[in-house]
Amino acid sequence: MKCDVNIITGRTIDQGANIDSKLSSDYFNACARCEIGVEDLKTLGLSEGSHVKVSTRFGSVVVSLALCDGNPEGVAFIPLGPWANTVVNPDTHGCGMPGFKGILGSLEPTDEKPLDLKALMSLYR
Amino acid sequence: MCMEITDAICSFCGSLCDDLTVKVEDNKIVDVKRACRLGASKMLGHERINSPMIRNENGILEEVSFDSAIDKASQILLHAKRPLLYGWASTSCEAQSKGVLLGEILGAVVDSTASVCHGPTTLGVQEKGLPTASLGQIKNRADLIIFWGCNPVHAHPRHMSRYSGYLPGFFLDRGRQNRKFVTVDVRMTETAAISDEFLQIEQGSDYVVLSALRALVNGKDDLVPDVVCGVSKEDLVRLSGMMRSCRFGAFFFGMGLTQSKGRYKNIDCALSLTNDLNTQTKFVITPLRGHYNVTGFGQVCSWQTGFPAVDLSRGAPYYNPGEMSANDLLMRDEVDASLIVASDPAAHFPNASVRNLAKMPLIQIDPYANATTEIADVVIPTAIVGVETEGTAYRMDGLSLRLRKLVDSDYPSDEEILDKIIKKVSRKGDVC
Q1: Which SUPFAM superfamilies does the record match to this protein (chain B) (predicted)?
Q2: Which terminal residue of chain B, N or C, has fewer Cβ atoms less than 10 Å from its own Cβ?
Q3: Does A25 touch chain B (CB under 8 A)?
């Protein structure tokens, strides 16, 4: 089932610890993920580790689901990185800063797998 | 040979922790004491780019000599009409200074990662000023710490133990017991979990909640409704009371303010709240800066051009974020070549910007392979500042520190590579 969310992106310690080894599986595991609260997990009918397609009007990306007890219902957190940036709002509101937080979007179950960094970046070349 | 280096400075985040003990065996760092997980991961090392590379006509990055890569990079920059020189957060002030000079010679836009980090903070500070203090003053005096829209447990793991929480200060001999922590965020973070108070606000409501606190601090209680964006008036009254009654308050903030709705106006409001509080007690405010020398770029670019990011295409420095910032230029598809130094915009820019970054010639100068390497046309590996080469960096509170070289390296420094590019692109009359 589809679930509407407000997406925020940000740093995590796992993302930071692997920021200089972006081609590693550790970086992939740290960033190709979406953290949601237990209520949204129930709405989606999925469990942790399931793949989910995140869609906004700026793009879509497939990532793994993770449970975060601290997230209120309707808030999805994606660590900053190439996966998050597929769905963020590029509008800088006239001050240079794109919309990395507060992006309205949706989550839905998918059979697709997340792309690794090389595959994701090859889409730009 | 084995040696122990004491008081080494960590070149990961803006905290610039300067108390590390690094053990070096046979020119390799084998142990780092007192570093957090972020600092230790950097000091102990990751896989490096082995050699300079140029992308061939089949789209494959091919190893070349440093001279060939510098030649190619210089040609790309010389032929560009609207070059973007971007990054600079994870290198020395000396390299940043060379970067600004290169921008002047080329007539380029020089922008740093602050534009996707604390760039809005700079705009807010330009409107309202920055009532701040050194991290040492905060450690010694602050009995109330506010973390708003930031999660230092993840992003600055030793900040609380060194500056903003646990360590006893000169006037606070019981450390944590002398201080109250308050976290304001849209979700229960690890920082919120160890705070004395947590105010959970609705995403994007920072400006409204800050304004409500300003009203309460200024005695306009009747203007505040019973609930403000998910926070009860009772909770806001309690927080405003804590702010007014503390002896020395310190307000730290992060991307929760700069990247949410309102952007720099959120910072403007937080600065105004701090100014309001200073009519009743002592209060300071400090942005939690991410990369270890992003603060330094703002300093260097400002003292060389007058602005913390700059468009040098007009023959005189020009600054107008929202028009000449990296993402605005890329979104408008104005950039026809880019030089990326010590950062990874392909991993940290919206996809629409990355698409335009990728289609034009891109030169990368960096110690590590990252997402930008995947779309780069010229790649030049360099030494890691603070590990393999020395340099100056600015801590998040504006304190400059000298980073030391801990091990030898065959890689040239960012500064050396930029110097060579400057010599290649300079014309008669350029000052280098």
Answers
A1: Formate dehydrogenase/DMSO reductase, domains 1-3
A2: N
A3: no
Q: Which domain holds residue B382?
A: 50-115+292-430
B273-293 pLDDT, tens digit per residue, is: 999 999 999 999 999 999 999
Number of domains in chain B: 3
Tell me how close the Cα of B11 comes to any Cα of chain A, in angstroms.
12
**B279 and B151 both lie in a single domain:** yes
Are B317 and B412 found together in one domain? yes
* Helix, strand or coil, per DSSP, at residue B224: coil
Please report, for the domain that includes residue B205, its CATH number. 3.40.228.10
Cross-chain Cβ contact B155/A11 below 8 Å: yes
CB contacts of A69 in chain B (<8 Å) are 188
Identify whether the C-beta of residue A30 lies closer than 8 Å to the C-beta of residue A67: no
Residue B214 shares a structural domain with residue B306: no
Task: Tell me the nearest-neighbour CA distance from A39 into chain B, angstroms.
Answer: 14
* CB within 8 Å of chain B, chain A residues 92-111: 92-102
8 Å CB contact between B254 and B164: no
- Cross-chain residue pair B263–A93, CB shorter than 8 Å: yes
Measured in Å, how far apart are chain A's first and last C-alpha atoms? 34
CA distance B143 to B157: 20
How many structural domains comprise chain A?
1
CATH number of the domain where residue B63 is located: 3.40.50.740
Do B375 and A22 lie within an 8 Å CB cutoff? no
- Which chain A positions have a beta carbon within 8 Å of B350's beta carbon? 58, 85, 88-90, 98
Maximum C-alpha span of chain A: 40
ipTM of the complex in this document: 0.97
* CB spacing of A94 vs B322 below 8 angstroms: yes
CATH of the domain at A11: 2.40.40.20
pLDDT (tens digit per residue) in B216-238:
999 999 999 999 999 999 999 99
